[in-house]
Amino acid sequence: MNLSRSIATVGSLTMVSRIFGFARDILIASTLGAGLLSDAFFVAFKIPNFFRRLFAEGAFNAAFVPLFSGLMTTDGRDAARAFAGQVLAVMLVTLFIFVTAMQILMPWVMYGLAPGFVTSPEKFDLTVELTRLTFPYLLFISLVSLMGGILNSAGRFAAAAATPILLNITLIGALLFVAPYLPTEGHALAWGVAVAGMVQFAWLMVASHRAGLSLRLPRPRLTPRVRQLLWLMLPGVIGAGVVQINLLADIVIASLLPEGSISFLYFADRVTQLPLGVIGVAVGTALLPLLSRHVAAGNEKAAANSQNRAIETALLFTLPAAAALLVISPQIVTTLFERGAFDATTSAATAAALMAYSAGLPAYVLIKVLTPGYFARKDTKTPVKIAVVSMVVNLALNLILMGPLLHVGLALATAISAWLNVVLLAIGLRRRGYLAMDSRLTSRMSRVAISAAVMAVALWGIHQGLAEWSEGSNSAGIFELAILVMGGALVFGVAAQITGAARFSELRGLLGRNRTPPTAG
């Protein structure tokens, strides 16, 4: 399994998904703006995703992928498939019961998740209705996580990485073609979320069958291996729960802030998700099965090298991305979203949140790079303890900063607590002997930082030169943003070559054109 090729595969498909995602969000912004309807839909969309990340994506993958990869390595494909089938049967029954119960209890659940909406009965009732429509998505996307874990463990990353593209296409189609026949655009989007889950599941079922990894559905039983999975998941659920409670706390607190705050944070987060998804998800997805195989084979030297190269790749892309977002957030938000119901005031509020989020961008990605170092060794407890500390800090900062900074304070608290999480994860790995930064990594980190700083200064200068010309013109703004993006990439590329932060030959290798690992330097 080639780490660079795996990262490139997941990253390129995630990039396609993010492009469709931006098209989706531009359409939502122009149609819904930032107000009652958008706040209601974003809460309805976030709640099933909260449980997905809690059970199916975070804790489940952390426990399942090492077990499945280990079985593939030691007992063969058939034993691994039988184990996955047992997990599928238990998941189906559990998820069906949970989704049904949540549908019934949704009004009471909403009192806890969006208490600020209680003062507006119209907003509260609409949020409950839309969440009931979106919640079946949890059932299907959880099964998608299972199928994706199976394919990723077998070194087949493309199909799972492409599933978010289907979600974005479905939501765009719902807004364009279904909305005229439903009470609001929010109803169309909520129905689109539920249908997208079904489409994604069907897609991966076909991909698994073609890969020879289709599953049988036995009678649900808590076999010894399933119990082992649940035992390994338990601290992961708590840890993932801590992270998700952080995000949920943002929603709860934002619901108490002026109307539109949830929408400001959503759109700012969506921009941040582009580099986070392309790099963080790609590196984390590719790294966990690779580390699991190295650890299962007793090859700690290879595991350490893979960990260092993953950190290097993450910093190479996230440091310049964070620098760029800090400098040109207003231009990005205005060009992408400011049209229709999304006005200049909304743009300014969203850009301020984006700048705060971007300060933590490298940390968000490094968390995804460092946690596989624990999960691959079946240590799901340590990240839990670290996440608890980070959660407490985040909640405290939320309460401290929400007064003077409103929604921007919530975004800034998220960034600060993410950096704390990274520091604690790195210290834990280093103390166990699982993280030893080699000379190449330490040298490249400083060179990447210098190159990113040079790019940031260049972006500020380009913007100052074009600001008066592009002001007040949407087409000129698009042209300015294009110049900023291309100019920033060019300046960083040249600076990286001069400082030695990266070589073109290594980037070609990352894209899969060169299978030979780059030499240290």
Keyword list:
mainly alpha; disordered C terminus; 521 residues; 83% helix
Explain what this protein looks like in three dimensions:
This protein is mainly α. The protein folds into 2 domains: 3-437, no CATH class; 443-509. 83% of the residues lie in helices and 0% in strands. The protein is built from 17 helices and no strands. Helix 10 (300-337) packs antiparallel against helix 16. The radius of gyration is 22 Å and the shape is globular.
Give a nutshell description of this structure.
It is built from 17 helices and no strands. The chain is an all-alpha fold and 521 residues long. It has two domains: 3-437, no CATH class; 443-509.
Sheet having the most strands = none
How many domains? The number is: 2
**pLDDT < 50 runs, ≥5 residues:** 509-521
Please count the beta strands (DSSP E, at least 2 residues each): 0
Q: On the 0-100 scale, what is the average pLDDT?
A: 81
Helix share, percent: over 70%
Estimate the global geometry from the Cα principal axes.
globular
Element-by-element helix/strand order: HHHHHHHHHHHHHHHHH
Measure the end-to-end span: 24 Å
Based on CA atoms alone, the radius of gyration comes out at 22 Å
Estimated share of beta-strand residues: under 5%
Number of helices: 17
